[in-house]
Amino acid sequence: MSYQMLIDGNMVSTEFWLDVVNPATGEILARCPRADAAIVEQAVAAASRAYPEWSRRSYDERSAKLRQLADLIEERADQFARLLTEEQGKPLEQAAFEIAGAIYVLRTFAEMRLPPETLRADGNSQVVEYRGPLGVVAAITPWNFPVLLLMNKLAPALLTGNTLVVKPAPTTPLTTLLFGEVCADVLPAGVVNIVVDANELGGILTSHPSIAKVAFTGSTATGKKVMAAAAESVKRVTLELGGNDGAIVLDDVDTASAAKHLFDGAMLNAGQICVAIKRAYVPSSMYDAVCEELARLANAAVVDNGMHQGVQIGPVQNAAQFAKLKDFLADAAEHGTIIAGGHALDRPGYFIAPTIVRDVSDDARIVREEQFGPILPVLAYDDIDEVIARVNDSDYGLAGTVWGKDLDRANAIASRIEAGTIWVNQHLAIDATIPFRGAKQSGLGGELGIEGLKEYTQARIVNSVSLD
Ligand code: ADP
Predict the structure, then answer these.
(1) Pocket flag, ligand 1, residue 161 (CB < 6 Å)
(2) Is 150 in the pocket of ligand 1 (CB under 6 A)?
(3) Vertex 81, ends 78 and 90: CA angle to 5°?
(4) 222 lines ligand 1 (CB under 6 A)
(5) Is residue 433 in a domain?
(6) Ligand 1 centroid, distance to 224 Cα (angstroms)
């Protein structure tokens, strides 16, 4: 299969290539074309040309296009899911779930509208808020959920009348290029353009005078660069950045259930989820039992190529992340006790054995930093106020979880956690109708829900009185 970028309605190749590696084998999966600065300029120019006509269309027309995109992805869902597993590493079942999620996001946004809102109307005066599109949006996506996180940006951007330049992460460009084929069939030329880089062209987009908004998901470090670059022309930015989510287990939960929830929340997608459980806090009275059960689950987990049936945990996505996790493991071994895993698997590909670390201090790297891999530190606590303070003692504030039978108590504790989303007795309950945003250095602005839709619009207040 050959891959091409989408520029101004045409599928294009270049003489520059990028090797895409299958993380389960370490072998080259495909070569794909990549852009240079001139091609990025063509993409931005095409999106700018397409904007006036696209933005004048009605919501209903644009909504119909979103539904068509969803239908065509659905027809090819199997192809998308397999390619996603091959380039990203996640088990096929989870890849299929991501593709289904992407389709759902397109269809859910297709239902949303932002009609003019009358803020005041009395006698002969009225104040009405209208919302119009911004212009050309740059959507820059990461490698953990390349398809879903693209749709979280593309669906609201297109529905509200913006056009797009999309740039996937260099290690997972293929599913985005496959989606480009779908766009070429459905959308007018230039409405969506896709460029691939080797991590060097994002800065052109984030500082480009013709880009009105940058919608970014990635690390906090790169997010700061995006925000700085966008400042020059006061671009709108939505930043979905890193997290170091704490999970608080309360003392009325049984051991097996606590351990199962913690394990699943930490290990899904090999831990490479911005809202994965990254630190677990367990009452001292239950600590040994929960750690033991977590170690048992880690040792029993099926870790293998995601294309094989029954696999729970695939490889981590890329060589750089693999190297970073091996560093974390060395540090965890020095500052804590590893009771399961603790090493890379002795086989080709980027496999890390699911790892549980106990007796680790709050200032160890594995607790303070975002590991983004299948490594869970487990910490003991004695007092609720103390554990809330420890969870909140972080520059991050993306999400968190509280697990407890007494729902009122669990909810009260949840409301004290400084994060954008706190789930109680569930995890990853993200839905296209519910706003999602990060607190502190975990983000700026938000995605999803009507709030997320508004982020792709400029509000205009028309404030009028009659002349006499
Ligand atoms: P990681 O460090 O885990 O690879 P990043 O946050 O750097 O993740 O990457 C997320 C996305 O941001 C990718 O598409 C990447 O190519 C892009 N990116 C990297 N550097 C920049 C930059 N300076 N400006 C804009 N985008 C960038």
Answers:
(1) no
(2) no
(3) 150
(4) yes
(5) no
(6) 11
Asked if residue 361 and residue 263 are part of one domain, the reply reads yes
Q: Quick check: is 459 in a domain?
A: yes
Interval 98-110 mean pLDDT = 98
At 250, the amino acid letter reads L
> Which pair of tokens denotes residue 85?
């597993």
Cα(339)–Cα(121) distance, rounded to whole angstroms?
66
202 lines ligand 1 (CB under 6 A): yes
Residue ranges making up the domain that contains 133: 5-241+438-463
Single pTM value for the model: 0.97
Shared domain for 451 and 381, answered yes or no, is no
Q: 406 in helix, strand or coil?
A: coil
Query: Which position has the token pair 């006499």?
Result: 468
Total count of residues recorded for the chain: 468
Look-up: residue for tokens 């590991």?
A: 371
What residues are annotated to the active site?
240, 274
Residues 228 and 301 reside in one and the same domain? no
Domain of 319: which CATH number? 3.40.309.10
- The whole-number pLDDT of residue 206 equals 98
Q: Which residue has the CA at smallest separation from atom 15 of ligand 1? A: 169
Task: Say whether both 275 and 415 belong to one domain.
Answer: yes
Within a domain: residue 207?
Answer: yes
Looking from the CA of residue 229, the nearest atom of ligand 1 is 24
In a domain, 458, yes or no: yes
Ranges assigned E (strand) in 362-438: 375-381, 396-397, 399-403, 421-424, 436-437
Q: Kindly give the distance from the C-alpha atom of residue 104 to the centroid of ligand 1, in angstroms, as a whole number.
A: 26
What would the pLDDT profile of 55-72 be if each residue is shown by its tens digit?
999 999 999 999 999 999
Domain identity same for 249 and 237: no
